[in-house]
């Protein structure tokens, strides 16, 4: 960040962090390019879900609710009232 803000020269940063100036310049170029790309990216909208997919999901939810209720009832019968171990 110091290289991008140009708070210190590349030589000063190189000495401060004991890194070759070429590395600092490379990191700076890469960071600036990636920052620019982030603004160019198209915004991601909400995913499109078909009615068929919604129906499948509702069916799956219904199935899971029935299974949960069945297992809760079985648990109560096996373990006694409240479904907790004595």
Structure description:
With 86 residues, the chain is mainly alpha-helical. It has two domains: 2-40, no CATH class; 51-83. It has helices at residues 2-5, 10-17, 21-40, 51-79. The protein is elongated, with a radius of gyration of 30 Å. The termini are far apart.
In one word, what is the shape?
elongated
Estimated helix fraction: over 70%
Radius of gyration from the alpha-carbon trace, in angstroms: 30 Å
Largest sheet geometry: none
Q: What structural class results from the helix and strand content? A: mainly alpha
Strand runs, count:
0
Q: Report the total helices.
A: 4
**Domains counted in the coordinates: how many?**
2
Order of helices and strands: HHHH
Portion of residues in beta strands equals: under 5%
Q: Give average pLDDT, whole number.
A: 85
Poorly predicted runs of 5 or more residues: none
Termini distance?
Answer: 62 Å
Protein name: Transposase
Organism: Roseinatronobacter monicus
InterPro entries: Trp_repressor/repl_initiator
GO molecular function: sequence-specific DNA binding
